[in-house]
Design goal:
Elements: E1 8-11, H1 17-28, E2 32-37, H2 40-54, E3 59-63, H3 69-82, E4 88-91, H4 114-130, E5 139-142
Parallel strand pairs: 1-2, 1-4, 2-3, 4-5
Helix pairs in contact: 1-2, 3-4
Protein name: Short chain dehydrogenase
Organism: Lacicoccus qingdaonensis
Pfam family, one: adh_short
Amino acid sequence: MKSLSESTALITGSTDGLGKATAEWFSEKGANVLLHGRNESKGQKTVEDIKDVTGSDRLKYYNGDFSSLDFVAAAADEILADGEKIDILINNAGIGGGPKSGSQRQTTEDGFELIWQVNYLAQVLFTRKLLPLMNEDSRIINVASVGQADLDFEDLDMEKKV
């Protein structure tokens, strides 16, 4: 396994919270850090914030809203085109809400329940598309929240729990 200073880490949902803290940590360790988010200006500000804190210039931001599978594919395609090998992929992007929070069921333009798409389907598509940039030593880490509800395999798209 490479040292962190020789590694590239891609972190989804890295414009705030745990994702931003993780990106900053990897940057402090000298890794090449690829950040992802759904808001271009917030993403660029995050890059500048991390650069200010760590002094690293080994940061690049990719934009892609996981509520659209087309945007997920486009972000992955941009990363693929850049050709940077990925040693660590941290799938951290996600949203909360759902039946236990009292929020209403929302569907995406792709026809899936919003939380299901962002927290799972988009992550799988993104990861599968990026596999050519990984090798047998690469690691994939999927982050989940303690706030997640139990998965009902009979109602994956949460149509019954509205």
